[in-house]
Amino acid sequence: MPEPVLQVTGLRRTFGAVRAVDDVSFTLGAGGSLGIVGESGSGKTTTARIIVGLEQADEGQVTVQARARAGRARGRAERLARAREVQMVFQDPYLSLDPRTSVEAVLRETLRLHFPGTDHEARIRELLDQVGLGTRAADALPRQLSGGQRQRVAIARALAVQPAVLVLDEAVAALDVSVQAQVLNLLADIREQTGIGYLFITHDLGVVRCVTDEVIVMRHGRIVESGPTGRVLADPEHPYTRLLLESVPRPGWDPDGIAAARRAL
Amino acid sequence: MNALDIQGLRLQLPGSARPVLDGVDLTVAPGETVALVGESGSGKTLTSRTALGLLPPGAVTEGRVLVDGQDVLTMAPDRLRALRTGQAAMIFQDPGAAINPLRRIGDFLTESVRLTGTVNAADADRRAVELLDAVGLGPELLRRYPGQLSGGMLQRVMIAAALMGDPILLLADEPTTALDVTSQAEVVALLGRLRARFGTGLLFVTHDLGLAAAISDRVYVMYAGRIAETGPAAALFDRPRHPYTAALLASTPRLEAPSGRLAAIDGQPPDLRQELTGCAFAARCLHATELCREEAPALRGTHPAACHHPLEGSRTDA
Amino acid sequence: MSVALTRRPGLGRLKAARAPLHPICLGFAALVVLAALLAPWLSPYDPNAVDLGNALAGPSSDHLLGVDAAGRDTLSRLLLGARTSLLGPLGVVVFSTVAGIAVGLAAGWRGGWLDSVLSRSTELVFAFPGMLLAILIISVYGEGLLAPVIALAIAYLPYVSRLTRSLVLAERTRPYVCAYQVQGHSALQICLRHVLPNIAPIVLAQSAVNFGYALMDLAGLSFLGLGVPALTPDWGRMVFDGQTAIQHGYPLSAILPCTLIVLTVVAFNVVGERWADQVARRTT
After folding, report:
1. What ipTM was estimated for this complex?
2. Radius of gyration of chain A, Cα coordinates, nearest whole angstrom
3. What is the pLDDT of residues C135-156, one digit of tens each?
4. Does B35 have pLDDT greater than 90?
5. Facing residues of A85 across strands?
6. Contact status, residue A142 vs residue A150, Cβ threshold 8 Å
């Protein structure tokens, strides 16, 4: 069992009366890929934001590479160290890039912040190559790029920091099917090359099947099921997981039955 | 008479080098569910909007779009307005954005029928309650505001509003994309029941191949403003004839498929600012020949596919 | 994103619906600015040269636009008055924009108690009509251009800060700001390098609209005899001085500065609103 690169224990977060995250614990092995599946209101996005540092948990602990991340980052050194641990790619390719900054400038900013004094030009070219963008894309502004290209830039920006864990919050949900396939293949390649760990937040079970080794299913802030992806999708134990699987449209499905099952749960 | 009959629709927008819609033929019979599948830029949303006469400014059209036998493209404005409240209605993708948050649900449901004067206020309210019941919601919702309802409930309200005018044609533009999978199943079940009860024809625009296969009787696949392939749903997804359909199916991550790399399609759809000669998919097609690049193929065959070298055999062979 | 710019009603109707209006206004505004810059070389006479023997004469070959009640050449006074009349609003706009952006940025970004304090304070300022605030401050500090400029700048600040605050609040939730936070940039860096450049065009367009209003307010103050000292030529002041001229039946020295004020305000307003429309169209 490889050393876990990310360990989450007893995470809790409440917004008023709503328990958005309720006692969530899981681990991600080095170079592994964990999927978090759930519908809206399941708490998967809040969990991701806590891990990345955009939200603070009320209780619980997040540990990356055996270093605890507790409370807000105090001071520049702590901020930079945390950024080197976990990075994030967001869902909306149209809003996750500053509309006034060119692709090259985005990468250069990151490199200047984390690796001042190194050769930025070469590294920028390397990163663009790694995400499958040509040098022509370097001068482009976000509005000149397609959705898929923008997501590649977002991935390059995240990789530039050389994090141990990459959190992908519905990163392919807003892309066309053919573009989604390209980006998923890219992500698989990157994981093979760099040994980075993925935390894949999604509602799409097909995507989970394709890119993750393990999966946890969340509902109303709690984990209802977890295990290897193949086993959970083929042989689910919890009725909610079964409901999710049945809700995936395919010829011969029974939407009325699903509606009834959903009300029953 | 078909609920919707699009014949040879060609739509040109200012500033684009090729027509955004290039010779689209599409029919929806009453009581039938037809799926229109494509990616962004394929023209599927634009096609569904022409059925209501919702053309972008500066659009130049050719061909005919017949809704219940009347050509929408040449209709007088007041006839068009009557059509939009009566014979045809649209369900939009994001119910939160498509419903006025400052008015009550009851107002939203009865507004259009009251304004056109087809129905008086009391009858309109009665019909609203009846339709809310048909979509599985209670009459107390009439007094609530949109902000108090969930996405799934709002989408059902939108469906009820669409049915207020007793339309023969229902246009649904990605109605479940913004919903959870379980809500999606509920809405789909609802649409099926309503179709059976009211006999409306449904044009379901989506990018989700699985969903299209599961709910529709017939499917049209669009690429770059043209119909690439059409046929009965089961046949189309088991034995796709057009290479684009096959490639799209191969690149969709599926539950039954083995995990690992997907067979992604290289490249991107053709840019609107470039002229297009020959087949729209030729640049990305693995089977393309010189003929494909020179001559645009027409839809041909019993299971029509716009391809010079349509695929034989079933999907699983490839 | 659509945020409404605040404009007082009335002048909005004069939008550039008819094509030539905008270029004409732009040209006129440019002309006024040019005249103000070149005034010392263009004006034929010393604007304060009194010539009582020639008082209230009409236009002649010596004095192209006539003279006022004290015999001073109207044309020279108009040209040099342009300087003061434009400098004042410029000061108001620059100060209110810089201070307003700072306040709005701090309130919108940090939120919490800082936001409450700043927002409530600016709302207090809103409650005072700008002119009254200016008169109050002038009565304390006496004559001079600085006092009314500072006073009006404070009165205009809330418009800028309120707009900035709502823009910052909207921008803050966007994923790219979150992405920069996750990347490890400090809040200040993100604010200045990314949020500010994205909201600046909208705020500056608002300031351009404010320029016209500031001009009107300052001219009004000068007309009331407050603000600019008596010997400095200023359009508002000229209208004040011209009251006696009107009573004697020679209204030219009062009407001309009036007309110029109105035309300049309209010109800057049209230009400013057009810029605001262009910015709004670009950001949607």
Report:
1. 0.89
2. 19
3. 888 888 877 778 888 888 988 9
4. yes
5. none
6. yes
Residue A68 burial (CB < 10 Å; 0-12/13-18/19+)? exposed
For residue A39, give the nearest of B180, B189, B214 by CB distance.
Answer: B180
For the record, the structure tokens of B180 come out as 């959870």
Query: Could you tell me the two tokens for C74?
Result: 């109207």
Are B240 and B246 in contact by the 8 Å Cβ rule? The answer is yes
Dihedral over Cα of B266, B270, B274, B276: its sign = positive
Chains touching B (3+ CB pairs < 8 Å): A
Do A87 and C176 count as a contact with CB atoms less than 8 A apart? no
pTM: 0.83
Identify which of C22, C28, C20 has the alpha carbon closest to the alpha carbon of residue C276.
Answer: C22
Q: Report CB contact under 8 Å: A87, C197.
A: no
Kindly give, in sequence order, each residue whose CB lies less than 8 Å from that of residue C138, ignoring residues fewer than 6 positions away.
Answer: C147, C148, C151, C221, C226, C227
Quickly count: other Cβ atoms within 10 Å of residue C233's Cβ: 25
Disruptive mutation site among A44, A94, A178, A186 for chain B (greatest number of B CBs within 10 Å): A178
Would the CA dihedral through C52, C57, C60, C64 be positive or negative? positive
pLDDT in tens, A35-78: 999 988 889 999 999 999 999 999 999 999 988 888 888 888 99
CA B37 to CA B33: how far, in whole Å? Answer: 13
Q: Do chains B and A touch (3 or more CB pairs under 8 A)?
A: yes
* CA–CA distance, A168 with B259 (Å, rounded to integer): 18
Please choose, from the candidates A237, A206, A240, the residue with its C-alpha nearest in 3D space to the C-alpha of residue A42: A240
| Residue whose token pair is 């006469």 | B53
| Residues found in chain B | 318
Q: Which two tokens stand for residue B315?
A: 């999907």
Q: Are B25 and B7 in contact (CB under 8 A)?
A: yes
